[in-house]
Design a protein that fits this description.
The structure holds two protein chains of two kinds. By secondary structure, chain A is an alpha+beta fold. Chain A has two domains: 138 residues, D-3-phosphoglycerate dehydrogenase, domain 3 (60s Ribosomal Protein L30, Chain: A, 2-Layer Sandwich); 72 residues, Alpha-Beta Plaits. Chain A has six helices and eleven strands. Chain B starts with a helix and ends with a helix. Classes of the chains: A alpha+beta, B mainly alpha. Strand 1 of chain A pairs antiparallel with strand 1 of chain B.
């Protein structure tokens, strides 16, 4: 079946208006990006494509994405004040309206970071407040952000996937869905694994210490 | 698991259960949650809808000033008892408008299936409520039956104005409402599907052309007409009228039309009403460019 799995993707979410795709969906993209970065960023560049670029001001898309980056849910009234709040907290935010269109009309690419690192997350808002994350640091993936997940950047060698899934199995964590993407054979790959339970700090550390693993991020739900 | 309307109706008939019940069973299987949990979550959505209608009927205005206050005008007009299209339809219209006026004012709403089309399902539900006298449980069922049709459209076509135009948003919402009204009124699953088909057929081709890119003009009034459309289509289906084109094929036609719609008519504010002389003037007044 398709991308919409629950009746609450259709009747819901409860949200601050005015647009499910340009407000609620935008907030969710921001919130998943924040979840992946795992801390409040110091600076953020938000690239908007297609309908997002043309109509973001009228839909409160700016406030919504920044609200998501501040970890606000779609029904949090604080979204309306998110630009002020981020200013108070000293987060530098820049919006870039892209002229060229992306494949999906509602696409946002969020690049953010602090002194310790940066991350690039691309998300699309597919309707009714539902989203899909389609890019992480230039790698392709397909996650809704609604499930716990672990994202492992690793050298493209045999056995790495088995080592990671072995650790998950040892910790009795069930895999719902997984995907591997690479830019070039033999270089670096991204393994995306949606799981039924949140990944603990200890397990994150264990996985990051595995041979050929470059970096590990997660989505906590 | 149902993938299209034909399967939904077929399985509902075989199991002798309603469309809303089919949606509840599928949700339980998919999520692993109990019936009580799922019912409770939908009941909370119903409460959000009630509050939004209440707030809108008290009068609310958006920041841009483009929309607001129309739900109140309709309420006052209806109280005079001289309405031409009948109070039940106008009740649905005023409550749909109330919801969308709250949405435009960045208030709290429940997307059904989207925020821009959030008025139609609650508007019609709270209007037929006065005549059909449903229990609280039946009102929650209304949302599940609407959800079942929305779920099929979302997976087989689109519910996004940016992808498929307003036909995908208010069109889908109106069809969902019509089907849910039929179930609440005691119609069969086939009649629900017919009501959906009749409604969507009359929304085909509707473009998404928001003035100044705001979910206000013409969105609020399209929700008004979407709810009136749903009420009439529900009555037609209940009267025994059938749709020559099966429901799934109407959904596929909507999808194809959406695919061939130029980007200027899909929520970019680059075409349609959004580019009218007055719209451009309003846009300049609001954003100063």
């Amino acid at each position: 079946m398709g991308k919409f799995k629950s009746v609450f993707d259709i009747i819901g979410p409860v949200m601050i208006g005015p647009s499910s795709s340009h407000t609620a969906g935008a907030a969710r993209i921001g919130r998943v990006a924040r979840n992946l970065f795992d801390r409040e960023p110091k600076w953020v560049q938000i690239h908007l494509f297609g309908s997002f670029a043309r109509t973001h001001k009228g839909h409160g898309t700016d406030e919504a994405i920044v609200g998501g980056l501040l970890d606000f849910d779609t029904d949090n009234q604080e979204i309306i004040r998110s630009l002020e709040i981020s200013k108070e907290r000293g987060i530098q935010i820049q919006f870039i309206e892209e002229e060229k269109d992306a494949e999906h009309p509602n696409t946002a690419k969020i690049v953010m970071g602090d002194d310790d690192g940066q991350i690039e997350v691309t998300g699309i808002s597919i309707g009714g407040g539902n989203i899909e994350i389609i890019g992480l640091n230039g790698y392709e993936l397909h996650i809704s952000g609604e499930h716990s997940a672990i994202l492992v950047l690793h050298h493209d060698r045999f056995g790495v996937i088995a080592n990671v899934t072995n650790l998950l199995s040892k910790n009795r964590i069930n895999i719902g869905q997984m995907e591997v993407a690479r830019k070039e054979k033999g270089k670096i790959s991204l393994m995306t694994i949606e799981v039924d339970h949140n990944i603990s700090n200890e397990l994150m550390k264990e996985i990051s210490q595995l041979e050929n693993v470059v970096n590990v991020t997660r989505i906590v739900n | 698991m149902f993938k299209n309307v034909a399967e939904l109706v077929e399985i509902a008939n075989a199991k002798k259960c309603s469309i809303s019940e089919m949606m509840i069973i599928q949700e339980m299987e998919m999520s692993g949650k109990t019936r009580e949990e799922i019912f409770g979550q939908m009941e909370r959505n119903l409460q959000v809808m009630e509050k939004a209608v209440e707030r809108g009927l008290d009068g609310v205005h958006s920041k841009s000033g483009l929309t607001g206050g129309d739900a109140v005008l309709l309420k006052v007009y209806m109280e005079k008892g001289k309405s031409l299209s009948g109070n039940m339809i106008l009740d649905a219209v005023s409550k749909a408008v109330a919801t969308n006026e709250v949405n435009a004012a960045m208030g709290t709403i429940c997307a059904t299936p989207t925020a821009g089309s959030a008025g139609v399902v609650p508007g019609t539900l709270f209007a037929v409520k006065n005549t059909l006298n449903p229990t609280r449980e039946q009102m929650v069922h209304f949302l599940f039956s609407a959800g079942a049709f929305g779920y099929i459209v979302a997976n087989n076509a689109s519910i996004s104005g940016a992808a498929g135009g307003c036909q995908a948003e208010v069109g889908s919402a109106s069809g969902m409402a019509a089907a849910a009204i039929v179930e609440m009124a005691g119609g069969t699953p086939e009649q629900c599907a017919t009501a959906f088909a009749i409604t969507l057929k009359n929304m085909l081709g509707l473009v998404c052309d928001p003035v100044a890119g705001l979910v206000e003009v013409p969105c609020v009034k399209r929700n008004a007409m979407g709810s009136a459309n749903a009420m009439v289509a529900a009555d037609m289906a209940l009267a025994g009228i059938q749709s020559k084109i099966p429901c799934d094929e109407v959904i596929e036609a909507m999808h194809q039309i959406g695919q061939s719609m130029p980007s200027s008519l899909r929520e970019t504010a680059l075409g349609g009403l959004a580019q009218s002389k007055t719209a451009l003037r309003l846009q300049k007044e609001i954003f100063g460019k």
